[in-house]
Amino acid sequence: MGSPTYDFEDETVVITGASSGIGRATALAFADAGATVLNADVRAEPKDVDASTPTHEAIRDRGGTAEFLETDVTDPAEVEAVVEHGREYGGVDVMINNAAITLGKPMREVTPAELDRLHAVNVRGVFFGCQAAAVDMLDRDDPGVVLNTASISSDLAQGGSVQYEATKGAVKMITRGAALEFADDGIRVNAVAPGQIATEIVDGWTEGAEEVAETDEGIKPVPLGRAGRPADVAAAFLWLASDAAAYTTGELLHVDGGWQVC
Question: Is 164 annotated as catalytic?
C-alpha cells in the first residue's frame, strides 16, 4: 500500500498538550512534514515511558523548528498569547486543541472540584482554543484549520467514566458548531476521535498495550487486534489539516481499530 506524504513547509502549527502521547506524536509528524511547531503545554518534559527529550528539542534535533510555550489551557488569556506568538512565524495555520485529562471513577464518587477541573481542561480549553485561533485567522484574513482531540467517548458510553465522556461529548459539539459558524469564512473545523490508544493518559497501557487490546482487560477486544498508537492518530490529524481534506469540515474522524462498530 502507498504511503501519503504531506508538505507543511512555511506553515505554523500550535498543538496544546504536545509534550506527551498523541500530542507529541502529532507534533513530530507535522515537524517532519516541514511545519514550525509550537507546543503549548503545562510542562515540557514528556511522560511517555519511551521518551526523555522534550518535544521541541526532539524536533530541533531532527532539523526542524519548534518552541515550547508553558500554557495552562484553562486560562483563555494564555491560549490567546500562544496564538499571538504564532504571528512571529507568520501566523497560526493549524490549531490543534489536544490537551486533556481523564478521571476514571464511578459517577457517584466524583466531586464538584473534580468535575470542574475536567471541564476546565477538556471543554474550556478546546472552546477557547477554537475561538482564539479563529479570531486570529479572521483578523489576519488568512483562514486555516482548527482540529480538536475528541474520543470514542464523544459518542459512546463506556462505563465508569461519565464525567470524562461528558467532556468529550462537548468537544464533538464544539467542533460541529464551530465548523458551521466559520464555514463561510473558509475555516475548517474537525476532530479526531481516538479509541484505545497506548499513551501515558491511560494507566497500564504504556506497556503491554498489544495484550490489553486482545483481551478482556480492555473495555472490549479491538477488531484490528491491537491497541492504537499515537502515530495512528497523528496521521489522521495530518490528513485533516491538509488540502486533501479541503471539503471536510464538522467531521469526527474515528481512529479506533473498529472498536465503535462491534
Answer: yes
Banded pLDDT at 164 (limits 50, 70, 90): very high
pTM of this structure: 0.93
Residue 10's CB: how many other CB atoms inside 10 A? Answer: 11
What is the DSSP-derived secondary structure letter of residue 123? Answer: I
Tens digits of residue pLDDT in 169-184: 999 999 999 999 999 9
Measured CA to CA, the distance from residue 205 to residue 222 in angstroms comes to 14
Residue 15 grid coordinates: 498543538
Edge-to-edge strands, sheet with 252-255 = 66-70, 36-41, 12-16, 94-97, 145-149, 188-194, 252-255
Gap between the Cα atoms of 165 and 176, Å rounded: 17
H-only helix segments in the chain: 21-32, 55-61, 76-85, 112-119, 125-140, 162-182, 209-214, 230-241
Q: How far apart are CA 241 and CA 97, in angstroms?
A: 13
